[in-house]
Amino acid sequence: MSAATGRRAELSWVWPAVGASLLVLLATAALARAPLLTLVTVVPDDAYFYLKTAWHVALGHGSTFDGVNTTNGYHPLYLGLLALLSRGVPLAGEQGLHAVVWLDTALTLIWFVVMAFLARRLGWSRLEAWTLLALFMPIAAVGDFGMEVNLLLPLAWGGVAAAVSADGRPGREWLAGALLGLACLARLDSLLFAAAATLGTLAAWPEPAWRRPARALRTAGRLLAPPAIALGLAASWNLVRYGHAATVSSWLKAGQQPALSALGGAVDVSPQTLALLMAVAVSAAGAVRALVTRRPGDLRVGALGAWAVAYVVAMTILLRGGMEVWYFPLPMSVGAVVGIALAHDWLAPRWPRFHVAALAVLAAGSVLAGALALTLQTGREWFYADGMAMGQWIDGHLPADARVYQVDNAGIVAYFAGRPVINGDGLINGWDYQRELRAGRLPEYLQANRVGYVVFDEFDGQTDPALLVPLWNAPAVTLYFAHPPVEVQRFGRFVLWKIDPRDARVTPPGQSRPQPAP
């Protein structure tokens, strides 16, 4: 084989990435030309927590979502990236949404290139690489623009790809560790993924790692030291700056759920849940196969499969507040990698023609599934219209010094409101708010922060309004008012009340409010 032919073969992994990237770019270009309300549908409410906080950081206001309370309720690396972006393109209004959509598209393209390179390093064919990227299309089409998972995917898989290509070279092992460390800052629960990648790397050595303990320790140190240091620095910063090593959002959401609550959150017949369960089943099959064969390649992939199973089970049991789709693209991508690895090692040698046909059908079906997922997501404009309309109305009608309190769906309202919207569920609020809320001093908190308005996002016409305020790791409290607040504006299920904070009352955790006098 000539040198030119060898170079072409070596670069053949590029073409699947190019093809998949073109499809993603076409979808993003179409989305960018859509009306604002359609664009809003692919940005979940929690993403606006990032956008608004990054905008404040870029303006020099500090780490705050509402401009009033200091918060650390986010994963730091993605917030930093958005703050950097906001210095060039302010993350406000329609231009901010366009900037974030294109940023996350660029991150997805980097992820595709990384995965095509990894497929080449694993010895897969071009069709297998293309099928892998096609399987990622529905994951990329999920409406999670503005969320940290878009940065996590290229960093986490970049660490795996660097580890696979290291071949004992210290520089590449340090590169893999650095990428895995950055992945931990992109999503703070990624340390176990780094550990699984490390175990897979050691297991893939031609000779058992225990026969060369010094080298194994050096490799493990290069891969795991950066993630451990990154998390240690993040925890230290939080402890010094906020008085708690954890972020306020992780503190609120983490903790064992009652068994029935966890089961109810896991049992769902949505396409996303079914896809996740399939990814878990394939990941488990890969882990079991690795234990049976004990071949280096199987062990490398099987370690990641075991992590995917453990991660989904742990999130089902421990996570409060619902199983949002942006928690699971990484384990779903692991399931795709394990599935292609199983097909490459088991199906291709036995039935090569069936293998090719199955991959072609799977690739085509995955591209169509991605297009369908995006179409369904952008077709839910009705779900987002009321929140956006409320934010825009507040921006155009309330006084410049008005302050609003809102429990749920505060992100989209705050993004468009141009006024401080204090987040009542606490995920992007501060530790001071948690202390006041849990001490039963929510009315005093509203008075001290000069809150004159409340938005309720589940209004159904009740004349005696009350808001359920979650404590997450304790029974909720109910905010109600001694005198009914005045309705100012209503958009569908969103209603804006003008309140006198001196009328605010709150029940003890878990207790019902007193019935109003007849």
Write structural notes for this entry.
Strand 1 (404-406), helix 19 and strand 2 (421-423) form a beta-alpha-beta unit. The chain contains 21 helices and eight strands. A five-stranded mixed sheet has the order 2-1-3-7-6. The model is unreliable at 258-267 (pLDDT under 50). With 518 residues, it is an alpha/beta fold. Helix 2 (14-32) packs parallel to helix 7, helix 8 (149-164) packs parallel to helix 10 (191-203) and helix 18 (381-397) packs across helix 19.
Q: Indicate the radius of gyration in whole angstroms.
A: 25 Å
Structural class determined from secondary elements: alpha/beta
Largest sheet: 5 strands, mixed
Mean pLDDT: 90
- The side-by-side strand order for the widest beta sheet comes to 2-1-3-7-6
- Written as H for each helix and E for each strand, in order along the chain, the element string is HHHHHHHHHHHHHHHHHHEHEHHEEEEEE
Strand content: 5-15%
For the record, give the distance between the C-alpha atoms at the N and C termini, rounded to a whole number: 92 Å
Number of strands: 8
Helix content: 55-70%
Helix count, DSSP H or I runs of 4 or more residues: 21
Return residue spans where pLDDT drops below 50 for at least 5 consecutive residues.
258-267
What is the molecular shape? globular
